[in-house]
Write a sequence for this structure.
């Protein structure tokens, strides 16, 4: 789960990215975080994955206060959070299978566990037949599905997707969001950061809208004030 | 500590793959280490040989302690025990008047010229050898406090020349070795930096999925280790071969003048030194280069 309480973030250059953001995402929830460029969405993501610390306020991710976490404990927290990026961030010289297995290897999983889990996750995202392909042999949608598989393979409690459909056509975008919804239905908390209003409208889900570093609306059924 | 064999295999595999993926830089690193170690090793062998030559010449650099005429023969011989208690004294040889006389006239061809000289005009004396020629002045002072000695003769100029030569050679070698060591570390560090720069995205992904710093670091450390140790071993055996060739030429040219130190006499310490430097430069360079990318 995520809890942000009255969070402020001011960068070294004086930019005030967040001005008192408060919201909570409970275990098992599915939500969109929407807002225009420069609204503070990326800052929220960076705070949630521990890349930066808040200037003020409290950020709790999976029960851990991100401002007080010891650096040596950060990797262990990150293992409970799966992150998906707009640009996929796959390792080019590794196969689909290796890209996904890599996440398990990083946390010290045994070879046997890797051989069991990776095919299962690839099947879940519909890529079992592309296990040996390299990322540059896949379409954008397929690459994003590999990224989803990688985020999912360690069974994280929370998945954060940063503009996961930014590089995809509408059909592939919908396909990825449906995949993330399917993962949420299996019990994983999912937060999707996006600015694509038409896509968000397809889902009857909670939408948190941010603009100018402040939450401007937070409600169910796709309602939000942001005219993206 | 529990060793995860899967992981160790993964670190080694990734380290080896990286060496071949960046083959040009790997080759450059190995060449730099070889060049550095051969130059450094040559200086070390030069210093070892100079020290050996100085040591040989030092053994000829003796203190002559002349004994008062009024000291009896038996007391004069008994002085050896007193001399041996003085610090830095390696040994002492008693030379009788008769021997001193014979040595004197033996230096000249015209023996009949000295036939009128009575050997009793010569004094009994001791030829005293020292451990460290640099401390010969102190030894001379200590000998002056022995009342039975009438006079102490030391060739201080020659002794200080030996010390100066050894000190200068030592310093020059130390400076050159230090400079080469810094250059090697810098180049190795840059090699690994380039490798990490190329793989910065991969490192960022590793961090994102929860890799610990040590998990990210180990393949690079293995890479540095393999490059360093490979370079040092090639350098070691090349130096051995080159020294053998050089020693052969020197022996032929300077036959009998001095004896070069055999490589086998220094092979073990040199091997340990080369392996240690190869390891240090490789592993140290990798660790240093990686720090920048791990602070995420």
């Amino acid at each position: 789960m995520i809890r942000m309480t009255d969070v402020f973030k001011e960068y070294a250059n004086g930019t005030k990215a967040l001005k008192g953001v408060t919201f909570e995402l409970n275990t098992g929830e599915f939500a969109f975080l929407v807002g225009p460029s420069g609204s503070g969405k990326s800052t929220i993501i960076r705070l949630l994955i521990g890349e930066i610390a808040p200037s003020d306020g409290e950020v709790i991710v999976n029960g851990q206060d991100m401002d007080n976490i010891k650096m040596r404990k950060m990797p262990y927290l990150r293992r409970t959070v799966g992150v998906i990026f707009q640009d996929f961030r796959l390792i080019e010289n590794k196969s689909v299978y290796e890209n996904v297995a890599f996440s398990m290897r990083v946390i010290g999983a045994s070879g046997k566990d890797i051989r069991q889990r990776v095919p299962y996750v690839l099947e879940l995202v519909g890529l079992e037949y592309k296990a040996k392909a390299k990322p540059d042999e896949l379409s954008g949608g397929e690459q994003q599905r590999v990224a989803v598989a990688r985020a999912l393979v360690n069974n994280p409690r929370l998945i954060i997707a940063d503009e996961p459909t930014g590089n995809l056509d509408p059909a592939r975008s919908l396909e990825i969001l449906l995949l993330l919804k399917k993962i949420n239905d299996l019990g994983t908390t999912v937060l999707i950061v996006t600015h694509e209003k038409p896509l968000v409208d397809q889902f009857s889900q909670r939408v948190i809208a941010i603009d100018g570093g402040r939450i401007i609306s937070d409600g169910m059924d796709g309602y939000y004030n942001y005219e993206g | 500590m529990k060793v995860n064999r899967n992981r160790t295999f993964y670190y080694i595999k990734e380290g080896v793959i990286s060496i071949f993926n960046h083959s040009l830089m790997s080759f450059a690193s190995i060449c730099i280490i070889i060049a550095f170690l051969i130059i450094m090793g040559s200086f070390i062998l030069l210093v070892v040989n100079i020290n050996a030559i100085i040591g040989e010449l030092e053994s000829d650099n003796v203190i002559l302690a002349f004994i008062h005429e009024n000291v009896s023969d038996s007391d004069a011989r008994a002085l050896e025990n007193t001399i041996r208690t003085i610090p830095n004294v390696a040994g002492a040889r008693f030379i009788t008047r008769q021997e001193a006389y014979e040595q004197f006239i033996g230096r000249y061809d015209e023996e009949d010229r000295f036939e009128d000289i009575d050997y009793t005009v010569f004094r009994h004396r001791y030829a005293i050898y020292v451990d460290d020629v640099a401390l010969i002045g102190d030894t001379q002072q200590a000998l002056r406090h022995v009342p039975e000695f009438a006079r102490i003769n030391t060739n201080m100029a020659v002794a200080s020349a030996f010390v100066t030569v050894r000190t200068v050679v030592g310093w020059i070698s130390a400076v050159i070795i230090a400079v080469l060591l810094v250059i090697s570390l810098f180049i190795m560090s840059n090699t690994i930096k380039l490798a990490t720069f190329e793989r910065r995205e991969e490192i960022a992904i590793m961090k994102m999925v929860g890799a610990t710093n040590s998990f990210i670091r180990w393949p690079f450390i293995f890479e540095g280790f393999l490059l360093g140790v490979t370079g040092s071993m090639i350098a070691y055996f090349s130096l051995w071969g080159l020294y053998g060739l050089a020693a052969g030429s020197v022996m032929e040219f300077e036959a009998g003048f001095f004896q070069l130190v055999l490589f086998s006499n220094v092979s073990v310490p040199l091997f340990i030194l080369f392996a240690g430097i190869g390891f240090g430069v490789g592993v140290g360079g990798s660790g240093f280069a990686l720090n920048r990318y791990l602070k995420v």
User: Anything to note?
Assistant: The mean pLDDT of chain A is 88. Helices of chain A lie at 41-48, 74-78, 96-106, 111-124, 140-152, 170-185, 197-201. The first helix of chain A runs from residue 41 to 48.
